[in-house]
Design brief:
Strand order of the largest sheet: 3-2-1-4-5-6-7
Strand content: 5-15%
Largest sheet: 7 strands, parallel
Number of strands: 7
Shape: globular
Length: 249
C-alpha cells in the first residue's frame, strides 16, 4: 500500500463537519495540510465559516450539503466530492444525531432513521471510496458505550453497534487498498443544551476521573490516518470508560 504517513496534499471528506466534533476534526486535518470537503445537512452558515478557516490555513476547503438519511443522497455524496476536489483519500464518517429513546417505547421509524444516518450512509460512502481502486483510509466515529449499553438512547445505540460491526467487516472486505478503523469517544463534548457541568458530573464514571476535549479525538484520528499497518481497530478516547462494559462480554 502507498504510504500515507505524510498527510499533506491529500483530500478528506468529513461528514457532519460544520459543527462540534466534526468541525474539530476538519480543522485538525487542515492544520496537517489536508484539503477538506465539509459535509453538512442544514448548517450552511457554519459550514461556510469553516471552509473560510480551512482556506486561511492553506489547504483547500469545500462545502457540500446532503441529507444522509436519504440513501440516494448519501450514495451520491462522495462522487460529488470527487467532482469538486478530485479523488478522496480519507473518509471520516462523523455525521450523527443523539436522541433519547427507550426499548419499551422506541418507534421502528426512529430505529430506521438512526440506522440510515449512523450505519447505512457510512456503508454507502465507504463503498464509493473503495470503488476508486486506490489507497485510502476510513474512520468511523462510534461511541464508548458501544462496549456496554445505553438504555436511554436505544435507537442510537443499536445503530452505532451496527457501525462497529461494519467497521470490522469493511476492514476485511476493502483490504488491502483501504484501511478502516473507528474512534469511540467518551466524555468529550456535552450534549446539545448542556454545558461543562454535565461533563464534570460524569467524570467519576471513568477510571481517569476526568473528561477529555476535542484535541484528544483529533490526535487519535491523525494517528489512524498516518498508521499504514493499522486496520480494523477501535480507539476508545474515553478515559477508560469502555473497561466497564458488561452487556457484550
Amino acid at each position: 500500500m502507498q504510504a500515507m504517513s505524510e498527510l499533506s496534499g491529500h483530500n478528506a471528506l468529513v461528514t457532519g463537519a460544520a459543527r462540534r466534533l466534526g468541525r474539530a476534526i476538519a480543522l485538525g486535518l487542515a492544520r496537517a495540510g489536508v484539503n477538506v470537503i465539509v459535509h453538512y445537512r442544514s448548517s450552511a452558515d457554519e459550514a461556510a465559516d469553516l471552509v473560510a478557516e480551512i482556506n486561511a490555513l492553506g489547504p483547500k476547503g469545500y462545502a457540500l450539503p446532503a441529507d444522509l438519511a436519504v440513501s440516494e443522497k448519501a450514495d451520491a455524496l462522495l462522487p460529488r466530492a470527487t467532482d469538486l476536489a478530485g479523488p478522496i483519500d480519507f473518509l471520516i464518517n462523523n455525521a450523527s444525531f443523539f436522541q433519547e429513546s427507550r426499548l419499551a417505547s422506541v418507534a421502528p421509524e426512529q430505529i430506521l432513521n438512526n440506522v440510515s444516518v449512523h450505519a447505512a450512509a457510512p456503508l454507502l460512502l465507504s463503498r464509493r471510496l473503495a470503488a476508486q481502486n486506490r489507497p485510502g483510509a476510513i474512520i468511523n466515529m462510534l461511541d464508548t458505550r458501544v462496549a456496554d449499553y445505553d438504555k436511554d438512547h436505544v435507537a442510537y445505540h443499536l445503530s452505532k453497534r451496527m457501525l462497529l460491526s461494519l467497521t470490522r467487516m469493511m476492514a476485511i472486505e476493502f483490504a488491502p487498498r483501504i484501511r478502516v478503523n473507528g474512534i469511540a469517544p467518551g466524555l468529550i463534548l456535552p450534549p446539545e443544551g448542556k454545558d461543562e457541568d454535565y461533563l464534570k458530573q460524569l467524570a467519576p464514571t471513568n477510571p481517569l476521573n476526568t473528561y477529555g476535549n476535542t484535541d484528544d479525538v483529533v490526535e487519535a484520528a491523525l494517528f489512524l490516518l498516518r498508521s499504514n499497518f493499522v486496520t480494523g481497530q477501535i480507539i476508545y478516547v474515553d478515559g477508560g470508560r469502555s473497561l466497564r462494559g458488561a452487556v457484550y462480554g
